[in-house]
């Protein structure tokens, strides 16, 4: 019988819009999303402590941690992974690292027709856009990766991404404009745009880590960057 006091903590710090979640079994018992106003290193532990207090959960009840490993903002990703490692080591519990793009796709695919493709993106500055594409297919509802995470210039991304697709993530005005032009030209007429629910990526991290059996030694989890 499952321990009803056992709680899984999730930490998503890959962007300025960060989120946390606490799950007991399949139930999300508390979640919190916020926009970082100073730096992730100053705010993260305080936000974790506040969430635990609001949910009336002690640190000793946490049995595992899942953290988004990126890609994303360098300092924010590094802070999230290091903080998750420190908590996991201090509590002597396992840690799992999960990619942000797969988590984004996992929040959308259950509501989409089988075979639909999700393209998850984030802005990567002068490097253009970071992105990956997923669809249904693996047992347990796990997303199947059809395009591995990569960097592309905006024009290349709009040409290279599979279509028809549902786009999500950091949909900048420039990307929306490029997608609109491609739709008008008939090259991406079946594409749509969507946003995962606020905080939804954090809960997805736990579910993906469980399904993949990813929990293990905190020291083996590392941040993921595209270059």
What Rg is obtained from the alpha carbons, in whole angstroms? 18 Å
Helix-residue proportion: 25-40%
E-strand count:
10
Distance between the termini: 45 Å
Widest sheet: strand ordering: 3-2-1-4-5
Approximate shape: globular
What portion of residues belong to β-strands?
25-35%
State the helix count. 6
**Average pLDDT over all residues:** 93
List the quaternary state of the chains.
single chain
Largest sheet: 5 strands, mixed
Low-confidence stretches: none
* Order of secondary-structure elements: EEEHEHEHEEEHEHEH
Structural class, from secondary structure content? alpha/beta
Task: Explain the overall architecture.
With 227 residues, the chain is an alpha/beta fold. Helices cover 33% and strands 28% of the residues. It contains 6 helices and 10 strands. The chain has a 5-stranded mixed β-sheet with strand order 3-2-1-4-5, sandwiched between helices. The chain has a 5-stranded mixed β-sheet with strand order 8-7-6-9-10.
List keywords for this structure.
single chain; 227 residues; alpha/beta; five-stranded mixed beta sheet; 6 helices; 10 strands; 33% helix; globular
């Amino acid at each position: 019988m499952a321990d009803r006091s056992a709680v899984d903590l999730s930490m998503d710090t890959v962007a300025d819009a960060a989120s946390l979640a606490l799950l007991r079994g399949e139930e999300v018992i508390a979640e919190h999303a916020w926009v970082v106003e100073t730096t992730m290193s100053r705010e993260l532990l305080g936000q974790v402590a506040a969430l635990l207090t609001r949910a009336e959960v002690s640190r000793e009840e946490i049995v595992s941690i899942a953290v988004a490993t990126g890609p994303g903002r360098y300092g924010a990703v590094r802070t999230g992974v290091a903080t998750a490692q420190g908590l996991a080591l201090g509590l002597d519990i396992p840690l799992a690292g999960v990619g942000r793009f797969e988590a984004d796709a996992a929040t959308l695919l259950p509501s989409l027709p089988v075979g639909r493709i999700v393209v998850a993106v984030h802005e990567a500055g002068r490097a253009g856009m970071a992105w990956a594409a997923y669809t249904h297919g693996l047992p347990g509802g796990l997303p199947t990766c059809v395009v591995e995470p990569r960097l592309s210039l905006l024009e290349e991304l709009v040409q290279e991404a599979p279509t028809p697709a549902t786009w999500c993530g950091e949909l900048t005005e420039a990307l929306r404009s490029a997608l609109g032009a491609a739709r008008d030209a008939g090259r991406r007429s079946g594409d749509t745009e969507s946003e995962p629910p606020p905080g939804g990526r954090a809960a997805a991290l736990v579910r993906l880590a469980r399904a993949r059996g990813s929990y293990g030694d905190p020291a083996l989890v590392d941040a993921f960057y595209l270059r």
